[in-house]
């Protein structure tokens, strides 16, 4: 546990120092948030490269830590040290003022981030629960995803899965973005428990995500109220699903508080697709279940922030607010440093007399290049939006060439390495499908129902012109390419399961949230009635998502993944079998084999299908083996099966011929769980 925390602190420190190479005026808190995301991404990629050579062991962890510490050399530069000292002094002065003479915004920021840290702790504390009766999750939407992520983590940590093969489909190259799980595998090898190996990164990145979104909103809008509303609208997103609360109250004699203490379903997404609730809340549907998205979002938002920064005109100064002016006064002058500190946002890097590229754009390219093995859909969204922005800002072609070159140099090898020899069918990922998951509902009503008043408020904000347009021309042209993240996924599917298009769609929401937040902030700055309207609109926007998050943090609901016998069975298998053993089990999502790190012939067909792999023939062969048919022995030899599991899960999904398996030696028996060794 201590080593895992040390690695985390080193990653945060290294990432934070890297921000001094491109971000001129970020406060220390913003640097820490952005640095945490960049540091974890670099640690994962560097660790993977080292592990491919040495495996995942103590040597790999030590070499990764040494390489990760290289940004600390920036402290040898006097200018960097001066800027860091100035940031630390500024942060300490702000804390002192907040404790002695707190102003309104210091108090708001303190409450906001204290609340964020507590809520994120409570949220990710429920992702994996270790109880005397087994392993559980407190997030219903995580029930299907958690065992898969555990299988990825344990295959790296216990099974030395290098080069990576799919942990749920042995023999197939692993093309699913896995670096977030690889970080957890590193922590697991460093001595953390399975639960803590997931929680450490989840909580740090969850808090950092809010900080990154806050800075994104502040840079775009220069409005403190709108900036702090931006991450709230993203985290508590939802639609009109809160209306179901009234139906729930009417169906029972219990009062509303009784219903709130025993929430029975989500108010943003329902499993019955015919009811049309498909959008989901970001926390319960995306950040907890889809661990790659948790890190992919803040990295993408860091890229967006640097795009906006680099888009400033030569004579334009960013940071016209009082806080930013004070920071400029406290920042060392250019003559005091070796690193140029420009008052222009462009921070030029002179590569040749004819090609000048801004550091923010080079940094954006570096961060974008980290995305493919972290979250591929985020990479697609970033590069797609970036391509359109480059066409709009063609006069800044040098900056955009720099961005795409750097991103391609880092991302290209990852893409080639992960897709070479892949069993994935490209046809399964791309196809025409209109209206996302609207089903039989009218598509306009479907989107209004799922997003509530968000879209109408967005349109109002874009058109509102009391004296001048609320959204500046510069912001409008920056925003327009992000609308493609809404339009295109409503026409084309980017994954076998159409719902996965939300991984692109959600970037439209992220880019739109600051504009809606600005509209609410402008209303709030009006008279009493305008404030009442703003408060009501904010409540309508966040109530459905808030209900889902409330049910999670108030510890409502626990869903068993592995019972106690299954956990004990898995521990015994780790002791009795070699790390690369091939094990046959029922094709289900929560087999105890996923806790062992051993090779799984086939996991849950639903997961495999979403990865673009045809599992039908293998699934049919597995059923014939368990039936003990005439070709069962030949099939065991064909797939090079070393061990076969027979437990209640196998019996629940297929016919098991006990007489057939009695011919093999039983080497593990825990209750109703049995493991047989197949003699090759």
Reconstruct the topology from this structure.
Blueprint: H1 2-18, H2 28-54, H3 58-68, H4 78-100, H5 104-125, E1 129-131, E2 134-137, H6 145-157, H7 179-189, H8 194-221, H9 224-235, H10 243-250, H11 256-261, H12 282-287, H13 291-310, H14 322-330, E3 348-352, E4 355-358, H15 359-369, H16 376-392, H17 397-419, E5 431-432, H18 443-451, H19 454-463, H20 473-479, H21 484-487, E6 492-493, H22 502-524, H23 528-553, E7 559-563, H24 564-576, E8 582-584, E9 599-600, H25 605-610, H26 616-626, H27 632-638, E10 643-646, H28 648-653, H29 658-661, E11 665-670, E12 673-677
Parallel strand pairs: 8-9, 8-10
Antiparallel strand pairs: 1-2, 2-7, 3-4, 5-6, 10-12, 11-12
How does this model look, in words?
With 680 residues, this protein is α+β, with helices and mostly antiparallel strands. The chain folds into two domains: 108-311 and 342-557, no CATH class; 561-677, no CATH class. It is 57% helix and 7% strand. The strands form four sheets. It has a five-stranded mixed sheet with strand order 9-8-10-12-11. A three-stranded antiparallel sheet has the order 1-2-7. A hairpin with a 2-residue loop joins strand 11 and strand 12 (673-677). The chain is globular and about 85 Å long. The model is unreliable at 313-346 (pLDDT under 50).
């Amino acid at each position: 546990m201590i080593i895992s925390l040390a690695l985390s602190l080193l990653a945060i420190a290294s990432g934070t120092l890297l921000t001094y190479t491109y971000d001129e005026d970020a406060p220390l808190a913003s640097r820490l948030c952005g640095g945490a995301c960049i540091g974890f991404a670099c640690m994962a990629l560097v660790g993977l490269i080292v592990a491919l050579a040495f495996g995942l062991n103590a040597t790999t962890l030590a070499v990764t830590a040494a390489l990760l510490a290289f940004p600390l050399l920036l402290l040898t530069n006097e200018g960097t040290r001066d800027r860091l000292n100035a940031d630390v002094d500024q942060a300490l002065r702000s804390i002192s003022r907040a404790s002695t003479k707190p102003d309104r915004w210091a108090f708001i920021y303190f409450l906001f981030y204290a609340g964020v840290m507590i809520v994120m702790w409570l949220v990710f504390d429920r992702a994996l629960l270790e109880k005397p009766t087994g392993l559980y999750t407190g997030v219903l939407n995580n029930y299907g995803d958690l065992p898969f992520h555990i299988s990825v983590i344990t295959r790296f940590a216990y099974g030395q899965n290098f080069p990576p093969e799919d942990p749920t489909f042995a023999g197939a190259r692993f093309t699913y973005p896995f670096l977030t799980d690889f970080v957890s595998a590193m922590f697991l090898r460093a001595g953390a428990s399975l639960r803590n190996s997931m929680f450490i990164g989840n909580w740090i990145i969850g808090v950092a995500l809010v900080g990154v979104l806050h800075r994104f909103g502040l840079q775009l809008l220069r409005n403190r109220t709108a900036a702090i509303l931006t991450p709230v609208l993203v985290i508590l997103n939802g639609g009109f699903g809160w209306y179901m609360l009234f139906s729930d109250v009417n169906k029972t004699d219990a009062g509303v508080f009784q219903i709130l203490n025993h929430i029975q379903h989500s108010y943003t997404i329902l499993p019955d697709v015919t009811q049309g609730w498909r959008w989901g809340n970001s926390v319960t549907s995306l950040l907890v279940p889809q661990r790659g998205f948790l890190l992919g979002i803040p990295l993408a938002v860091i890229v967006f922030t640097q795009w906006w920064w680099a888009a400033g005109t030569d004579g334009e100064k960013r940071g016209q607010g009082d806080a930013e002016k004070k920071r400029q006064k406290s920042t060392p002058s250019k003559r005091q440093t070796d690193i140029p500190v420009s008052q222009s946002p462009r921070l030029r890097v002179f590569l040749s007399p004819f090609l000048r590229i801004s550091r923010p754009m080079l940094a954006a390219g570096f961060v974008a290049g980290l995305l493919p093995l972290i979250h591929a859909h985020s990479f697609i969204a970033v590069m797609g939006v970036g391509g359109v922005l480059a066409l709009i800002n063609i006069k800044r072609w040098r900056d955009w060439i720099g961005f795409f070159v750097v991103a391609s140099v880092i991302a290209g090898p990852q893409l080639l390495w992960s897709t070479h020899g892949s069993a994935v069918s490209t046809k399964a990922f791309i196809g025409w499908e209109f209206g996302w998951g609207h089903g039989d509902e009218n598509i306009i009503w479907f989107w209004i129902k799922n997003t509530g008043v968000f879209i109408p408020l967005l349109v109002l904000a874009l058109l509102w012109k009391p004296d001048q347009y609320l959204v500046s021309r510069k912001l409008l042209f920056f925003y327009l390419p992000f609308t493609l993240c809404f339009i295109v996924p409503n026409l084309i599917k980017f994954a076998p399961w159409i719902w996965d298009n939300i991984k692109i769609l959600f970037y439209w929401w992220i880019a739109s949230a600051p504009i809606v937040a600005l509209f609410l902030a402008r209303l709030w700055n009006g008279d009493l009635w305008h404030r009442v309207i703003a408060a009501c609109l904010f409540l309508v926007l966040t109530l459905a998502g808030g209900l889902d998050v409330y049910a999670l943090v108030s510890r409502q609901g626990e869903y068993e993944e592995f019972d106690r016998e299954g956990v004990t069975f898995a521990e015994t298998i780790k002791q009795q079998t070699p790390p690369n053993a091939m094990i046959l089990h029922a094709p289900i999502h929560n087999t105890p084999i996923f806790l062992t790190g051993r090779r799984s012939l086939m996991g849950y067909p639903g997961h495999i299908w979403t990865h673009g792999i045809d599992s039908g023939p293998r699934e049919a062969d597995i059923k014939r083996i368990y039936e003990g048919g005439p070709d069962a022995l030949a099939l065991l030899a064909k797939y090079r099966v070393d061990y076969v599991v027979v437990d209640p899960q196998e019996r629940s999904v297929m016919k098991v011929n006990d007489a057939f398996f009695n011919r093999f030696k039983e080497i593990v028996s825990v209750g109703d769980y049995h493991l047989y060794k197949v003699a090759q």
